[in-house]
Amino acid sequence: MAPRAYWKGYLKLSLVSCPIQLFPAISEREKIRFHQINRKTGNRIRYCKLDAVTGKLVSEEDIIKGYEVDKGHCIEINDDELKAVEIGSTHTIEIDQFVPRNEIDELYWNTPYYIAPESEVGRQAFAVIREAIKKEGMVALGNIVFTTREHVIAIGPRGKGMLGVTLRYPYEIRKEADYFDDIPDERVPKDMLDLATHIVETKVTHFAPEKFEDHYEKALKELIKKRHHGEKLGKPKEPAPASVINLMDALRKSVTADRRVSRRSAAPPATRRQRTSANRSSVRARKTS
Length: 289
Fold this sequence. Notes:
Elements: E1 7-13, E2 16-24, E3 65-70, E4 73-77, H1 79-85, E5 92-94, E6 97-100, E7 109-117, H2 123-136, E8 138-146, E9 149-158, E10 161-167, H3 177-180, H4 190-202, H5 215-228, H6 247-263, H7 269-288
Parallel strand pairs: 1-5
Antiparallel strand pairs: 1-2, 2-7, 3-4, 6-8, 7-10, 8-9, 9-10
Helix pairs in contact: 4-6
């Protein structure tokens, strides 16, 4: 069964346009979700909407929207007023500008969507826009409306299609100064930095998401399987108490441990150094490109 499009409309570059459809590029449906149930009956819990002051049940027709302007004081906002300020959906993403991808701070990246042509009629125009963006090595910026909310979307080529990622607005980004300004400047001794750098160099590799493993999700599945078969479960392990360590000793022990792992490798030291250097150079080259 073909996936259902989340949004359909047009992608427009100057006078060139083509019908497109957007599909969410990520999903969390596969993650285990728990229901809240009544311990005594095993029935699911249903939530009721109660008046915060009187504690009485409120019917759906008596529930309206409100915005708290002062503590405990809300002003009513009705549906007609909301409709008056809604952004009309033109169902068209008009490309306004092109920017280098590396100029977009990673804090602004939000939700990714796959973009595909919606019909055979506009496939050539779709390919022309995709290839033009690819040739320039840029990302296109435009605006899109989902329901009533307008979003800035960054669009770039991806395989036979394109990838659009909605961007956060500046007011959504918290100021890093609120979290980092109180961190004092710390002098890092050269010998410590050299040891830490060595550890980093021995772990240089390539990004391989297929090797990621969600250990908690795996443990949940095993737990559910055991409970389903009526097996008894052991007590949770107590975390080991944190101990005060000497930073220099910890760095030296880390280097020693890495060397032991290297000795067990089939490759001689010179080959390992060459491979580490090659990996590091390859990773840097990929970042530069």
